[in-house]
Design goal:
Blueprint: E1 9-12, H1 18-30, E2 35-38, E3 44-46, H2 49-60, H3 75-84, H4 92-99, E4 101-103, E5 131-133, H5 134-140
Parallel strand pairs: 1-2, 2-4
Antiparallel strand pairs: 3-5
Helix pairs in contact: 1-3
Length: 148
Amino acid sequence: METQVKPAIVLDATGLVLGRMGGIVSKRLLQGERIMIVNAEKAVISGRKVSRVSEARLFLEVGHLGHGPYHPRRPDQIIRRTIRGMLPWRKPKGKEAYKRLRVFIGVPDEIKDRAVETIPQANASKLRCPYFTVGEFAKEIGWKTGGE
């Protein structure tokens, strides 16, 4: 008897708060769903940009270049790492859930025509504090886009 693989759900991260989106996505991954997140650079982080970037720069100084720990600087990798922190990653169910996650910068050609969902509970319009995008954060901590 063959098991059918469910098609992946496509989530648009535009305007979604990173932590709230990550919590909801991690629960859905643990329930067995396959999830693709598009527009990773347009997700938002709440708080003042200056303080978040200074925290990140201090954290980037930890470790050694060739020996780790390795710190993500690309927006898609930042989101993957955030969601990984919300999964029981060292247990088999957490590893399997993490394998079902795909994150993209922009929208790839192969999923342009697919239906896209969003998460209303994680919308940044509810925030009453300053916020900035993951793409802006990534550039501040050293992400070099392809055109530079």
